[in-house]
Amino acid sequence: MNPSSHIKHEAAKCVACGLCLPHCPTYGLLHDEAESPRGRLSLMQALAKDDLPLSDKLESHLARCLDCRACERVCPSGVTYGLAFDAARELIESSRPTQPAGRLVMFMHWLVEKPHRVVKLETLLRIYQRTGLQRLFRGSRLFQLLGLAQLEANISVLTSPSSLMEIHPATGKPKGRVAIFTGCLTSITDPQTTVSAIRLLNRLGYEVHAPPEQRCCGALHRHHGLAAKATELMHGNLRAFSGTEEPILCAASGCTATLKEYAKYQTGDESAGRFSTIVTDLNQFLAGIDWPSEIKFNPLNKRIVVHDPCNLTNVLRQEKKPYELLARIPGAEILPLPDNARCCGAAGTYHLTQASIARQLRAPKIEHLKRLAPDILVTSNPGCATYLAAGLREAGLDIEVMHPVVLLEKQMQIPPPGRG
Ligand code: SF4
Ligand code: SF4
């Protein structure tokens, strides 16, 4: 189906009931019908039917959409808003000769397309941070011109990098084999999540396979209408995992949501359907298996607040799983972050392109965290983690941010020598 047909097909399902409006974060902030799911669907439909020309105004209404898909979850007519939105962005991008996206966003797209670019940047960043160059460069005009001040303010690097092998053998009683999707930018912002996931799976008896040829999931490109590039990345992943029969686990809920939807992009590749079926959210997998009785956790007398990422809730519908997993840690007080159903504003590169709205969405979450004063904030999406961590740093709050599997792995008791 071409983008116009896709939009018309989805928009035709909308009965304009308005039930989605109270769930839309941008409608809640801006109180404007054009900033609501119903309004945006009408605009997309008019564009697809050539009833409205593409204008800056129309484009800005669509650009303010977070693609959080809270509207999709509550829609009684089953409008697949996210796919209609991607089709609209594709229609817009294909109708003009140049890319209007900012330098920083284009750089992010370019960066994640090839794994070796991320590795090189990781090395450069380490040199930059450890040699004092960071302090010198921050005061320069080039730093401001490249927009790096905004990037530094919005993204917090959570842990230090580490390298991966292709096969990680089970250390516990052998149970099976899984594959892991490691993501692209996560290797810079939060490599510890992948390391902890592999260690935990190994202790549970799983051999973990990490194909080195895997690519970025393509989410950033897909949501900016760069469908051809997103499809190229998708084919790269289908090739990298072509012989895989076992579950393909992914810790980052944003990437998992995109991988799960490969089958819906209708590019004529049959292997996409099989791939999407075996891709599984890591929390979901861990919560669904039988745990060996010898796996024990050290008590943790701390308060843990859980943030539910939009893609885990609205696309994967697995938001309960992190709570089930964390309940294994004795003594830990587990609380949901209030108003979890509302997006935190990170939303891919949204916090860079729509910084003001993103900050307005993050602010109440930081206030809740100030009041609840947890020791740890857990979230399953690296984009949300880095954006919330940056907000906490700005507010002067000393709250650790991590993925649930990092906390689980930290608390897991080390077996006595000679026992798996
Ligand atoms: S809930 Fe669904 S049918 Fe109702 S207005 Fe929103 S998109 Fe349309
Ligand atoms: S995806 Fe999110 S921001 Fe966009 S229209 Fe739906 S609820 Fe609103």
Give a short overview.
The protein has 420 residues and is an alpha/beta fold.
Written account of the structure:
The protein has about 425 residues and is of the alpha/beta class. The chain folds into four domains: about 5-95, Alpha-helical ferredoxin (Fumarate Reductase Iron-sulfur Protein, Chain B, domain 2), CATH 1.10.1060.10; about 105-155, no CATH class; about 165-290, Rossmann fold (3-Layer(aba) Sandwich); about 305-410, Rossmann fold. Helix content is about 50%, strand content about 10%. The protein has 24 helices and nine strands. The strands form two sheets. The protein has a five-stranded mixed sheet with strand order 1-3-2-4-5. It has a four-stranded parallel sheet with strand order 7-6-8-9. Strand 8, helix 23 (about 380-395) and strand 9 (about 400) form a beta-alpha-beta unit. Helix 1 runs antiparallel to helix 6 (about 80-95) and helix 22 (about 355-370) packs across helix 23. About 45% of the residues are buried. The model has no long low-confidence stretch (mean pLDDT about 85). The site of one iron/sulfur cluster has 14 residues, from helix 3.
